[in-house]
């Protein structure tokens, strides 16, 4: 049964309400007129990774807890419309949701509704094991239920990746994810010394590869103790939104890894996918396709020669 699924995505399903604001931080005022409108759509980190992987032709399955509510219906519809199998575990507290304030330069501020989770939330171990054993790889979102699923994943022997997002290198919540994954992604934005944090992840955990993305400056890639710099890729259109860029990077990187590509090329695929994501408005759920990614990656490699 192993290999029926290329990538199982664990967690990270939810709904965002997107508001484009004139600037960030947003100065206090009694009210603002939002001429671009206020949009609500399905798509949080796990959804975007699953969407990115599927768009690249990988057989993708998504497992998470969602509620029997309008937000849950949006999540189900997104997966159904994109042909991505989705296993939904009932979430009595409701589907995860957030409000994203997006500035003119594409930066965002996310406000998460923490009432949509409970300490007792769990993904059933038998379901996790069954889907993981049918998969070539598992990507884990850093949500509370997924933390409790890590021991079940270890028992399957399947390779695991995770994205720590804007971890500061100190918050203990992220450590179980950081030290349980074979491939670790994170943002360098909150790190005073990215290399030090990356080496600590590799030294204390099982990660063979650690990637710290640095926005327009590219990324750092640590493989088998050797740190290299991944150059940035020029977006194919004006940057409108950074939302989902890290998820797209992870999808592009994992696409390369499952093709057997060397880590630098995997990172290039990630950079190309992330650059594309920055040109997609946050109100949309879109991802780069396989042919476009390979063509742009070939062009970027030629430019470096």
Work out the helix count. 9
Structural class: alpha/beta
Number of strands: 13
Question: What is the typical, i.e. mean, pLDDT?
Answer: 94
Overall radius of gyration: 18 Å
Task: Summarize the biggest pleated sheet.
Answer: 9 strands, mixed
Uncertain residue ranges:
none
Report the sheet-strand fraction: 15-25%
Order of helices and strands: EEEHEHEEEHEHEHEHEEEHHH
Give the distance, in angstroms, between the N- and C-terminal Cα atoms.
43 Å
The level of helicity is: 25-40%
Shape: globular
Oligomer: single chain
Strand order across the largest sheet: 5-4-1-8-9-10-11-12-13
Description:
With about 300 residues, the protein is of the alpha/beta class. Helices cover about 35% and strands about 25% of the residues. It contains 9 helices and 13 strands. The protein has a 9-stranded mixed beta sheet, sandwiched between helices. A 4-stranded mixed beta sheet has the order 3-2-6-7. β8, α4 and β9 form a beta-alpha-beta unit. It is globular and about 55 Å long. The model has no long low-confidence stretch (mean pLDDT about 95).
């Amino acid at each position: 049964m192993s290999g029926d699924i290329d990538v199982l995505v664990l967690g990270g399903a939810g709904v965002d309400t997107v508001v484009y604001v004139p600037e960030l931080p947003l100065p206090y005022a009694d009210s603002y007129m939002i001429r671009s409108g206020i949009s609500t759509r399905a798509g949080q980190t796990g959804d975007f990774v699953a969407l990115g992987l599927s768009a690249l032709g990988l057989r993708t399955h998504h497992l998470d807890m969602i509620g029997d509510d309008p937000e849950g219906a949006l999540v189900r519809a997104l997966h159904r419309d994109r042909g991505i199998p989705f296993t939904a575990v009932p979430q009595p507290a409701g589907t995860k949701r957030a409000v994203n304030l997006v500035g003119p330069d594409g930066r965002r501020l996310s406000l998460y509704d923490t009432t949509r989770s409970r300490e007792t939330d769990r993904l059933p171990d038998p379901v996790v094991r069954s889907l993981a054993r049918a998969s070539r790889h598992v990507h884990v979102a850093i949500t509370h239920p997924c933390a409790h699923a890590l021991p079940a994943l270890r028992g399957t022997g399947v390779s695991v990746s995770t994205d720590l997002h804007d971890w500061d290198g100190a918050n203990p919540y992220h450590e179980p994810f950081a030290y349980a994954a074979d491939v670790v992604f994170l943002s360098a934005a909150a790190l005073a010394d990215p290399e030090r944090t990356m080496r600590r992840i590799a030294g204390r955990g099982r990660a063979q590869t650690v990637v710290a993305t640095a926005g327009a400056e590219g990324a750092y890639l640590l493989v088998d103790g050797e740190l290299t710099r991944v150059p940035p890729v020029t977006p194919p259109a004006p940057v409108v939104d950074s939302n989902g860029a890290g998820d797209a990077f992870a999808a592009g990187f994992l696409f390369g890894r499952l093709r057997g590509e060397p880590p630098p090329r995997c990172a290039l695929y990630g950079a190309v996918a992330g650059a594309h994501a920055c040109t997609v408005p946050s109100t949309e759920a879109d991802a780069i396709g396989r042919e476009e990614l390979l063509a742009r990656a070939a062009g970027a490699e030629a430019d470096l020669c």
